[in-house]
Amino acid sequence: MFRRRSLIFRTTAFVAILCLSLVAIDCWNSWQARTVQLDQMGVASSNLARAMAQQADDTIKEADTALIGIVERVEHDGTGPAAVERLRKVLAMHVAELPQLDALHIYDGDGNWVANSRQVVPENLNNASRAYFLFHRTHEDRGPHISIPVKSRTNGKLLIPISRRINHADGSFAGVALATIEIDFLMKFYDGLDIGQAGAVALILETGTMMTRRPFSTDMVGRNMRETALYRTYLAEGPVGTAEIKSSQDGVTRLNSFRRLDNYPLFVGAALSKDEVLAAWWRETLWHTGGVVLLVSLAGIVGWRLIKQVELRTKAEGELRRARDALETLNKTLNTLAMEDGLTGLANRRQFDVTLDNEFGRALREAGTLALILMDVDRFKQYNDIYGHAAGDECLQLIGRTIANLASRRPGDLAARYGGEELAVLLPNTDVAGAAVLAERIRSAVRELKIVHAGSSDGFVTLSAGVDALSPVAGKSQPKELIQSADKALYEAKTAGRNRVCTTERSTLA
Prior knowledge:
Layout: H1 2-77, H2 81-97, E1 101-108, E2 113-116, H3 131-138, E3 145-146, E4 150-151, E5 158-167, E6 173-182, H4 183-191, E7 200-205, E8 210-214, H5 229-237, E9 240-246, E10 253-260, E11 266-273, H6 274-277, H7 279-339, H8 349-366, E12 370-377, H9 380-387, H10 389-407, E13 414-419, E14 422-428, H11 432-448, E15 463-470, H12 479-495, E16 501-504
Parallel strand pairs: 15-16
Antiparallel strand pairs: 1-2, 1-6, 3-5, 4-5, 5-6, 7-8, 7-11, 9-10, 10-11, 12-14, 12-15, 13-14
Helix pairs in contact: 1-2, 1-7, 9-10, 10-11
């Protein structure tokens, strides 16, 4: 039973481990695929940021290079009528060569227009209030300055101002050279980037001002980004980095890569939607998981049926085992009933005959001796007549227990009810003298029971015994001769007055 339970346990454990292993392997593979997908997403967003940073840097660099030449020309040639006319042509030529430029402008120290690249000359145009003009008037730095986006007063376009300071010969402030880059030019480049439906790209000043963004909105241009997670991450990890950020603009979680421009105080951000990037992974994972669930279900069903079959087999084997045990018990009981006297508990006549033949054959093979004690309860018929058959049965039972206690001390000895009130003890490897000693002990023990018997001259129940022994000789001896001889001795005991033991001594029976 323990082995069967162990088999069921091992089968159950195997099926469970198999199913769990399939699920674990699928989960691990799916997670690895997700990790690879996110890594590729990070590489893609990083490449986008690099491309955007390069494009923005090149765009601004071209405009700034034009400004360097303009500043040098103004500071060398001045702003006389002839110089301004030549300057206007140069400005127009630069704008024609650089598609990102909306216009080039020159303002004097008071913010008044001096020259620009346009064909139409503006009237009463003064930009002294613009942020870039105020910056250069108060800063002696000769480098480029990128200001917050502005809306053109002439055509209404959103522009990014790039400016440089113009000095007098003594180094004092003489004005500003300004190049304005169309935000639409940058947006055309951004619109060509594959960022999915929920991706986003942006160009931001390091001071935290949004220059432009895709998806584009005029409300986003010039917005303060200092409190956003993207700006704080850039300050913490810049100038190059990647982070997963939930956008403060639209609430979409994206993988953001940011990169500072090499030459100017701006940085770009390229963000790909995490949900979009993982959409294909989710579809593949769902198909995978569905297949694994189906496979695990089939394995579970097969395993469950296998376990049930094992249980049924174990149950059937248990029932067969119990039936076998019951049959064996029944056979033993039947065998006992067949070989045991139901009244006295001693062996019955059938067992006596079988044992006599067996022991006779063994004595013959081993040249041993076999002794027999035949006993008869004296005047037992009168006892039944006087006390009844029930008392007679109790008397025989008590005598039977007494004989069994005295005569069944060796494995080969057999005490049997020979018939009626006749009893017998078969003693292998015992001579007449030894058997007579045992017979006398039995006779005396029965007398000492002091079972009252009014029909006996002694007043108590007694028994008589006849004893004989033989050493069988092949072809000359038969088991029945031992019975006949012992019975003859018993008859002599009865004739001699009962309550005694008689023997027949001989070495062999011819």
